[in-house]
């Protein structure tokens, strides 16, 4: 039978009840289980090492009281540490300066950028904003078309980029349109490539300099594990991202990528994608993700 991490920790502590202080010997087995489970969940090994050491430091020397279950206590320590690493509170979207505020969506092709742009526009509409969608992937006409279709589905106006060959041109004109139409949040769906390249990063840097976005959200496919972590690092180094959208969390990814990306970028995960449908989008809750990793 499948045994989740909580069960494993509790099992490792089964015979410990009422034996005084927790010693290094006592927790060795539990730490091994935690280490393995996190590695299996695709957490970067350096992050795992640090995490396990912190849990160990916290648990060592703690009194195991008569009647209290040390296994449950340890699960609680791990749960709280996970929440702590994942960022504590549920993060807000920051819209600074005067409207229209800009949110730039960046990431590799296939990560779920276009879908997430539409989902975010839908969510913001529900929250009382009037978003405007802007397709900026001039290299893939299909991507522009895709966002236009998505925009129609979520009933949000979209800039027609089909006649504009240059991203900067699109940025300038779409901002003007958004202002004229009284839209207050402009969501820019930028170009993605299969691999990170300098030309792409330079284009994004130029757009950032012109648009002065309130948010640059890096869109990562949770199913790609360590690859998502590497690209998060590269996008963050080039653009100083403000947050992360973790997509495809409806798959069987255990959420290890969330821990690693958070650690590498030190930026909050703000949203998760939980399906192909345009309402399958949620604010990220660190406590829920911690529970998911614990199982
Ligand atoms: P882009 O190239 O980064 O713009 O990626 P797309 O938005 O085109 O998404 C790539 C594929 O992933 C599409 O088939 C989407 O339907 C799918 N997708 C995006 N987000 C999710 C998600 O949260 N869950 C699932 N299951 N599929 C998703």
Automatic annotation (TrEMBL):
| Compartments (UniProt record) | Cytoplasm
**Could you state a single Gene Ontology molecular function term?**
GTP binding
Q: Which UniProt keywords apply?
A: Cytoplasm, GTP-binding, Hydrolase, Nucleotide-binding, Ribonucleoprotein, RNA-binding, Signal recognition particle
- Look up keyword Cell membrane and say if it applies: no
Keyword Ligase recorded:
no
Domain SRP54-type proteins GTP-binding: where?
Answer: 268-281
Naming one, the record's GO cellular component terms include: signal recognition particle
Which reaction is recorded as catalysed by this protein?
GTP + H2O = GDP + phosphate + H(+)
Q: Quaternary state and partners of this protein? A: Part of the signal recognition particle protein translocation system, which is composed of SRP and FtsY.
Present the record's domain note: Composed of three domains: the N-terminal N domain, which is responsible for interactions with the ribosome, the central G domain, which binds GTP, and the C-terminal M domain, which binds the RNA and the signal sequence of the RNC.
- Family designation: Belongs to the GTP-binding SRP family. SRP54 subfamily.
Q: What's the protein called, per UniProt?
A: Signal recognition particle protein
Task: Report the source organism.
Answer: Sulfidibacter corallicola
Phylogenetic classification of the source organism = Bacteria, Pseudomonadati, Acidobacteriota, Holophagae, Acanthopleuribacterales
**Gene designation per UniProt:** ffh
Q: Which residues of the full protein are shown?
A: 1 to 295 of 524
């Amino acid at each position: 039978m499948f045994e989740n991490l909580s069960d494993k920790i509790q099992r490792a502590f089964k015979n410990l009840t009422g034996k005084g202080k927790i010693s290094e010997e006592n927790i060795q087995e539990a730490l091994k289980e935690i280490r393995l489970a996190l590695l299996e969940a695709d957490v970067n090994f350096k992050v795992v090492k640090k995490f396990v050491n912190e849990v160990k430091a916290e648990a060592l020397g703690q009194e195991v009281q008569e009647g209290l279950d040390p296994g449950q206590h340890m699960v609680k320590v791990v749960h709280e540490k996970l929440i702590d690493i994942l960022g504590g509170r549920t993060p807000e979207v920051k819209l600074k300066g005067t409207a229209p505020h800009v949110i730039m969506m960046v990431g590799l092709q296939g990560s779920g950028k276009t879908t997430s742009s539409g989902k975010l526009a839908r969510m913001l509409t529900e929250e009382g904003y009037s978003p405007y969608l802007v397709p900026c992937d001039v290299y893939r006409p299909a991507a522009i078309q895709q966002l236009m279709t998505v925009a129609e589905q979520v009933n949000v106006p979209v800039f027609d980029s089909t006649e504009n060959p240059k991203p900067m041109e699109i940025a300038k004109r779409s901002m003007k349109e958004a202002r004229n139409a009284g839209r207050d949040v402009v969501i820019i769906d930028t170009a993605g490539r299969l691999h990170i390249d300098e030309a792409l990063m330079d284009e994004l840097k130029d757009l950032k300099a012109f648009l002065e976005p309130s948010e640059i959200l890096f869109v990562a496919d949770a199913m790609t594990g360590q690859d998502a972590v590497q690209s998060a690092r590269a996008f963050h180094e080039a653009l100083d991202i403000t947050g992360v959208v973790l997509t495809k969390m409806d798959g069987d990814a255990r959420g290890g990528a969330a821990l690693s990306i958070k650690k590498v970028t030190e930026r909050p995960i703000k949203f998760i994608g939980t399906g192909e449908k345009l309402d399958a989008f949620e604010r990220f809750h660190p406590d829920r993700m911690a529970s998911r990793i614990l199982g």
